Amino acid sequence: MTLEFAKRCATTAQQSGWRNTHRVIVIASFTLCLLHFLFCLFHHIFHPLLFSSLLFIMDGKVFNTGLLLLATIFVAKLIHTFLIPKSNKRLPPIVKSPLPLLGGLLRFLNGPIVLLREEYPKLGAVFTLTLFHKNITFLIGPEVSAHFFKASESDLSQQEVYQFNVPTFGPGVVFDVDYSVRQEQFRFFTESLRVNKLKGYVDQMVTEAEDYFSKWGSSGEVDLKYELEHLIILTASRCLLGREVRDKLFDDVSALFHDLDNGMLPISVLLPYLPIPAHRRRDQARKKLAEIFASIIASRRSTGKSENDMLQCFIDSKYKDGRPTTDSEVTGLLIAALFAGQHTSSITSTWTGAYLLSHQKYLSAVVEEQKTLIEKHGNRVDHDILAEMDALYRCIKEALRLHPPLIMLLRSSHSDFSVTTRDGKEYDIPKGHIVATSPAFANRLPYIFKNPDSYDPDRFAVGREEDKAAGAFSYISFGGGRHGCLGEPFAYLQIKAIWSHLLRNFELELISPFPEIDWNAMVVGVKGKVMVRYKRRDLSVN
Ligand code: HEM
């Protein structure tokens, strides 16, 4: 079959009267053998997470079909590389690799940040990685990423690259709908996160934190990562999913969200509908969640009861033509909100703690700030008091600069565009490329952030303001521009509510080594446990 394919390729090339046919056949045959060898190699050695399920179905017939498909893409690419005349566009430099074409994949699998660290010094702010038949062009730094953030959906879209979310969020929402409908759904998000709503959510966040930490003893040792993950699920349930879920259905709904979460694997990005057990459990969980929310929505509608939560906002939302949201859309939007906000916030809370507990200077600063606020307002904590916690805000923001949970943002380009680097080089990025930028890499650019690897929350203080040093897209943990995070204020309020409670009520000490980064997670977080020793205290004000 493979030989047949190589012959067909040769015939096509001869008919076109091209001369390099022989060369193409030799390279194609050689490379197909190489491909087969590499797959055997992958089977035994490489990335178990990404490849285990893929290779499982690659035994027998499916393997042959998969191989043929890859070969087709591969040979098409060879023909393109060797036979199609070069354009005179100022294309970005290409990431070189000793293995043609597959090399890109290997380097990407080794970790996109490793790749960026290696290639940025050599190739600069704009370069292209070839992954099979796809070109991924990286735009690193605010000078070249501005277009990424500002471009209209018709030029740079999210739909194709984030399509893998559709089976999780469900039909009819976000990346399953046209941009015009998605825009309206994002309007519902915006409405549900307005200040008047946030004020109510903060009261619930504070209550959840008080309840949760009241269960700690007078002293002890805990895994801070585990504790904060749990508290944030409870808070998110209360503020987003609503009282019914938080008070009555918490365990059931948590288990279902857990299945949804576990159904989002690296392989799901490539093959979201692959029939593997994790995807089947995800689909069943999505169905059950839809049933649970349908009954909650029906009950709220029949009793006419209204609550201050995101669920209520979505139930009350209407499209421009007057159509109300359906139960399925409400469920999908809530799932999307939880996916956007839960891990991101809990990871950031944990990093904030790890940094504060290993930087006495900043720990003292935030404790002093709490004392000042207690002096001013007593023990009360509300939206406006949280807004006064500037030192704590900077400490969270700095933890998030060093560890943005979303390390790579993607778009699909539908029209050619050009960018100019800060040293004046111009590049044309053709339509059809996937365009990527990386908060994890860009947030540590040394020409924007002084000593970029050090934890220095004061870099955001008045007078320094490094987050604006090179314009609006200098600091991109929350993205920016057209698709900037809608939950940023919610996230800060939630993390501040937790940390102000901890600082006021406990003396804390980090007793495990400073945590490492878990690069393997979909939302990049903290590796292993973060063990903390605590002792209750009442922050005294002299
Ligand atoms: C520390 C916490 C968070 C981080 C680091 C974060 C980060 C981000 C980033 C980087 C984007 C841009 C994605 C892109 O450009 O492709 C984004 C978008 C978004 N985030 Fe967040 N997020 C956080 C919390 C939240 C929360 C709590 C919510 C909601 C409750 C939320 C809702 C959204 C939504 C709806 C979008 C899509 C906006 C759009 O496409 O127009 N996020 N977030």
TrEMBL record:
Cofactor names: heme
Listed transmembrane segments: 24-46, 66-84
PROSITE patterns assigned to the protein according to its UniProt record, in alphabetical order: CYTOCHROME_P450
Keyword Oxidoreductase tagged: yes
Cellular location(s): Membrane
GO cellular component entries: membrane
Class of enzymatic activity (EC top level): oxidoreductase
Keyword DNA-binding part of the UniProt annotation: no
GO BP terms in the entry: methylation; sterol biosynthetic process
Residues holding heme: C485
Keywords: Heme, Iron, Lipid biosynthesis, Lipid metabolism, Membrane, Metal-binding, Methyltransferase, Monooxygenase, Oxidoreductase, Steroid biosynthesis, Steroid metabolism, Sterol biosynthesis, Sterol metabolism, Transferase, Transmembrane, Transmembrane helix
Family: Belongs to the cytochrome P450 family.
Name of protein: sterol 14alpha-demethylase
